[in-house]
């Protein structure tokens, strides 16, 4: 029986490998020889060149490997199957263990493969992205960051600290790659919903760039995860003997900005065409650095802009789920819980999207002071009567006038707001797990929408505002649900499926980065970001929307990214921001049809296959 099961699994793996490989003409399935400047064990210890037991005998002879490996030569497919079998054995052997233990065990086995053989690692990741994304990305990446100093085995990426002031322009040349296309940087100040994790936040850039490789086909030799270590205010870490970062409070004010300025100048000096993605900066620095750099460098902030784009696609899907035209988005009542960088990013992008609706040309056409948002933070409903109101949130604060709901005051609780507003959408980016209580969800049942939408978008899973089971039980089986971290679908009383849509940033940020890279964009504009969001929103069919599906399957991520990347590139061309890349100038991009642009973007995606290796001596 086991032999038959193994045979079936082998057949499944062969089919998977054949269907996931690029088509002929993609330019990445067959490669010419790769010249290497090392021999023997130096090659085996280099994960980029190492093929483990798949080195053919001819390569073993010319690279000085004969005798350094077991004599059997395995095919790529056999190596692939061997790893998948090991992974399934791990799953079987850890049944009944706490979820955190299982998740870290899965991360370790993938990380060991990454350290040993990058080609096999990325092929496994691409082919099984739906299963492995939760391990290399949210939610497990949060657990990894919390324990990173203990899990650390070998460095990955670069670390620029407050102690390196004045040295960054020379330090940047310590990175061995001649070309870097994509950089993800964090200062560790707000890792997911977990707060200040200091240098341990490096796990986020590493995980994000793995997604860039798997989803956007960025060559892994041209990505660079970076940690800006400016200290930490986390006393627990400062007292931890294993902590690997600077043992000092965080820099603030001009001292902090001077470090980030020097880093950005150093990156731009060496790799002027590199895309820089800012990730998990606390709110004040997320907005400050975005405004400071967005028109000087090709950069974006995924928490502010990527989250906003995915949320907007979900909000537009919620309008469609109600059977209403997208122009009715301007009439939606939306309660947003969380006024941090992600929450304000969603509010700003949603407002801009509303103004881009057909027939809407200026805010006055929507009515004086039109505001469809009710925003709450830890102190309750935000109104214009709040003292010390932050300018970033002031435009969304409730005021006075005919559009205001009677008896809703400054600091009103979430349950009060939901009961009185009867919103179409309840959106959470609070970082407070379970804040959408049974009472709040029951109040959402009285929504003015025939299909109330609840978005619990905080990460990781422990920080989600509620679960899909809670929503379908208390709001009703007609509800629409989306979350930042993955949940399982729910079986409803009538046997239908209640979809636990994952409103994951990975639907957008790989395409934003890839589109900006291939168009040679000078910077990333609001128009490019809106193009990405609208492309994602249009990806789902009306039939799927009627079933409650707002986002496509993660297993289609490369196809989605090709579409999003093409939309971003075309927007860059339309706005005269595109300078082209090595094999494509802006005039050629402009002359392409939409489908031709998608094909071009797909062809430029790197795909992992073993290249023949030739020593240069």
Overview of this protein structure:
By secondary structure, this protein is α/β, with parallel strands linked by helices. The strands form 4 sheets. A 7-stranded mixed β-sheet has the order 9-8-7-10-11-12-15, with helices on both faces. Strands 2-4-3-5-6 form a 5-stranded parallel β-sheet, with helices on both faces. A two-stranded parallel ribbon has the order 1-16. The protein is globular, with a radius of gyration of 25 Å. The N terminus is likely disordered.
For the termini, the CA-CA separation is: 51 Å
Distinct helical segment count: 26
Gross geometry = globular
**Strand-residue proportion:** 5-15%
Structural class: alpha/beta
**Count of individual beta strands:** 16
Unreliable parts = 1-29
Please state the CA-atom Rg, rounded to the nearest Å.
Answer: 25 Å
Regarding quaternary structure, what we see is single chain
Major beta sheet, specifics? 7 strands, mixed
Mean of all residue-level pLDDT scores? 92
Level of helix content?
A: 40-55%
Order the strands across the largest sheet as they lie in space.
9-8-7-10-11-12-15
């Amino acid at each position: 029986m086991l032999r038959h099961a193994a045979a079936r699994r082998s057949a499944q793996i062969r089919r998977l490998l054949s269907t996931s490989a690029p088509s002929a003409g993609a330019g990445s399935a067959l490669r010419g020889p790769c010249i290497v400047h090392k021999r023997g064990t130096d090659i085996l210890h280099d994960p980029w060149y190492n093929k483990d037991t798949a080195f053919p005998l001819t390569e073993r002879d010319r690279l000085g490997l004969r005798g350094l490996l077991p004599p059997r030569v395995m095919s790529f497919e056999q190596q692939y199957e061997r790893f998948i079998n090991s992974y399934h054995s791990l799953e079987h052997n850890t049944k009944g263990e706490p979820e955190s233990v299982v998740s870290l065990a899965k991360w370790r086995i993938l990380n060991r493969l990454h350290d040993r053989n990058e080609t096999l690692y990325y092929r496994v990741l691409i082919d099984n992205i739906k299963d492995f994304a939760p391990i290399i990305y949210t939610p497990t990446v949060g657990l990894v960051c919390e324990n990173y100093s203990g899990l650390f085995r070998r460095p990955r990426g670069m670390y620029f600290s407050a102690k390196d002031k004045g040295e960054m322009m020379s330090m940047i040349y310590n990175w061995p790659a001649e070309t870097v296309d994509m950089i993800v940087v964090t200062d560790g100040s707000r890792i997911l919903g977990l707060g200040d994790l200091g240098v341990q936040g490096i796990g986020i850039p590493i995980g994000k760039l793995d997604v860039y490789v798997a989803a956007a086909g960025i060559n892994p030799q041209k990505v660079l995860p970076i940690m800006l270590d400016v200290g930490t205010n986390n006393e627990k870490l400062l007292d931890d003997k294993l902590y690997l970062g600077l043992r000092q409070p965080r820099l603030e004010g001009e001292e902090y900005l001077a470090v980030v300025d020097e880093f950005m100048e150093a990156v731009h000096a060496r790799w002027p065409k590199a895309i820089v993605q800012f990730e998990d900066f606390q709110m004040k620095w997320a907005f400050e650095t975005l405004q400071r750099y967005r028109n000087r460098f090709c950069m974006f902030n995924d928490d502010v802009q990527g989250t906003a784009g995915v949320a907007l696609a979900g909000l537009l899907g919620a309008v469609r789920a109600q059977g209403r035209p997208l122009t009715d988005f301007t009439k939606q009542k939306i309660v947003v819980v969380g006024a941090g960088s992600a929450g304000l990013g969603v509010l700003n992008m949603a407002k801009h999207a509303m103004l881009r609706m057909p027939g809407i040309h200026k805010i006055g056409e929507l009515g004086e002071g039109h505001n469809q948002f009710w925003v709450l933070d830890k102190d309750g409903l935000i109104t214009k009567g709040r003292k010390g109101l932050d300018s970033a949130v002031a435009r969304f604060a409730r005021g006075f006038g005919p559009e205001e709901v009677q008896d809703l005051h400054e600091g009103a609780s979430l349950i009060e707001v939901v009961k009185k507003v009867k919103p179409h959408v309840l959106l959470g980016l609070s970082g407070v797990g379970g804040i959408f209580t049974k009472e709040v969800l029951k109040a959402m049942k009285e929504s003015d929408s025939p299909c109330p939408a609840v978005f619990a978008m905080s990460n990781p899973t422990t920080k989600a505002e509620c679960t899909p089971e809670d929503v379908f039980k208390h709001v009703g089986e007609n509800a629409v649900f989306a979350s930042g971290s993955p949940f399982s679908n729910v079986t409803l009383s009538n046997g239908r499926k209640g979809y636990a849509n994952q409103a994951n940033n990975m639907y957008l940020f790989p395409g934003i980065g890839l589109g900006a890279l291939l168009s040679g964009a000078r910077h990333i504009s609001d128009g490019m970001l809106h193009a990405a969001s609208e492309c994602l929103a249009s990806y789902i069919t009306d039939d799927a929307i009627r079933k409650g599906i707002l986002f496509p399957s993660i297993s289609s991520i490369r196809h989605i990214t090709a579409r999003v990347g093409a939309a971003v590139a075309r927007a860059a061309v339309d706005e005269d921001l595109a300078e082209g890349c090595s094999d494509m100038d802006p005039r050629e991009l402009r002359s392409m049809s939409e489908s031709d642009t998608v094909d071009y973007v797909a062809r430029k995606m790197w795909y992992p296959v073993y290249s023949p290796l030739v020593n240069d001596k």
